[in-house]
Design brief:
With 297 residues, the protein is α/β, with parallel strands linked by helices. It has a single domain, classed as Rossmann fold, CATH 3.40.50. The chain contains eight helices and ten strands. The strands form two sheets. Strands 1-8-7-2-3-5-4-6 form an eight-stranded mixed sheet, with helices on both faces. Strand 7, helix 7 (222-229) and strand 8 (233-237) form a beta-alpha-beta unit. It starts with 10 loop residues before the first strand and ends in a 20-residue tail after the last strand.
Length: 297
C-alpha cells in the first residue's frame, strides 16, 4: 500500500475536492467514479453548479488534471455528465486517457411534460476511460443472465456447453435503469442522487476485490455505500457538511459501522469521538474547523 493512503481509506472528508486530492498518493487508486456538478444551476448548498460555461470547463480541467495521476496503471475512470458539456470534457479526457465507451444512462423518465421546443432530455452521458489498454475489467461479474426463452431458442447442438449462454451477456452501452423517484427506498435529500445499481455495476467491472474506489464529489454517498456493499475500500470528498451527514447515516444503515455513543455524532465539529467499527476500516468526516469557511467548487 502506498505511504499515506491508509489514513484516507473509508473516509469521506468534508473539504474541497481540489484541495483534498493532493493528499492522495499518486498511482494508488483502482477506480474513480465521479459525478461532478453539471453546470445546470442546481442547488447543492453552495455555488458549485452555478459557474458560467467557460469557468465550468476550466474547473473541470483542473479536477481532471488532479485526479488522473492518482490512478494505478490498470485504473479506470467513469464520469457522469450531460449532453451540454460532455463533448468538451470527453475531448479533454481523451488527451490523457483511453476512451472505452460513452455509456447512455436511460433514466426511464415517464413520458409526460418536458420541453415543447426541442426533444426532452431523459439520459445522462457517462464517459468510461482507462489509463492503459490492459486495464482491469471483470466482465463476468456484470453479465446479465439470459431468460429461459432465449436459452431454449439456443438449444441446437452448436450452442451446447457455450459459457456465454450460461453466464449471460455483456451489458451494452445503453443502461436502462430507473432514476430514484421521491418514494424510492434508496432516496435521500440530494437533487441528483444516483442509483446503487448503476454505481455497483461500475465497481464490480472496474475495481478488483481488494481495490480502492475514489469519488471526489461524493454527494449523497452512493459510491461509498456501493463500495462497502461490494467489500471495496473507498475515499471521498464532499464540500457540503449536510451531505456528509446524509452519507454517514446511509453507511450506518448499510451496517458499515456503529457509533460508540449515539448522542455523540461524528458530524459534530466539537466532538473528538471516533466511530466504533464493525469492519477494520475507518469512516470519518474530517469537518473543516469552525473558523475556516468552506470553499466552493
Amino acid at each position: 500500500m502506498k505511504p499515506g493512503l491508509e489514513k484516507l481509506l473509508n473516509r469521506v472528508l468534508n473539504e474541497d475536492a481540489l484541495a483534498g486530492i493532493a493528499e492522495i498518493p499518486d498511482g494508488s487508486l483502482d477506480l474513480i467514479v465521479t459525478d461532478p456538478p453539471y453546470c445546470l444551476g442546481k442547488d447543492y448548498g453552495n455555488e458549485s453548479d452555478k459557474l458560467d460555461p467557460e469557468a465550468y470547463l476550466e474547473w473541470s480541467k483542473q479536477w481532471i488534471d488532479a485526479v488522473i495521476p492518482k490512478l494505478k496503471p490498470a485504473g479506470s475512470l467513469y464520469v457522469f455528465l450531460t449532453w451540454r458539456y460532455s463533448p468538451e470534457i470527453f475531448c479533454y479526457l481523451k488527451k490523457r486517457l483511453i476512451m472505452l465507451n460513452e455509456i447512455i444512462w436511460d433514466r426511464k423518465v415517464p413520458s409526460m411534460g418536458g420541453s415543447t421546443r426541442r426533444f426532452s432530455s431523459v439520459h445522462d452521458n457517462i464517459g468510461f476511460f482507462a489509463k492503459a489498454k490492459d486495464h482491469y475489467f471483470d466482465i463476468d461479474s456484470i453479465r446479465i443472465p439470459y431468460d429461459e426463452e432465449t436459452k431454449k431458442a439456443r438449444s441446437r447442438s452448436i450452442f451446447v456447453g457455450k459459457k456465454w449462454l450460461e453466464v449471460g451477456y455483456n451489458p451494452k452501452d445503453v443502461w436502462s435503469i430507473s432514476r430514484l423517484h421521491a418514494i424510492h427506498s434508496e432516496r435521500v435529500e440530494h437533487p441528483t442522487q444516483k442509483p446503487l445499481e448503476v454505481i455497483e455495476r461500475m465497481i464490480k467491472a472496474s475495481c478488483p476485490p481488494d481495490g480502492v474506489v475514489f469519488d471526489p464529489f461524493m454527494g449523497s454517498g452512493t459510491t461509498a455505500v456501493a463500495a462497502f456493499r461490494l467489500k471495496r475500500d473507498f475515499i471521498g470528498f464532499e464540500v457540503n457538511p449536510d451531505y456528509c451527514r446524509v452519507i454517514e447515516q446511509r453507511l450506518l444503515d448499510a451496517g458499515s459501522f456503529k457509533l460508540e455513543d449515539a448522542t455523540n455524532s461524528t458530524c459534530s465539529q466539537e466532538s473528538a469521538r471516533k466511530p466504533k467499527l464493525k469492519q477494520p476500516t475507518l469512516f470519518e468526516h474530517a469537518l473543516a474547523a469552525a473558523s475556516k469557511p468552506l470553499e466552493t467548487v
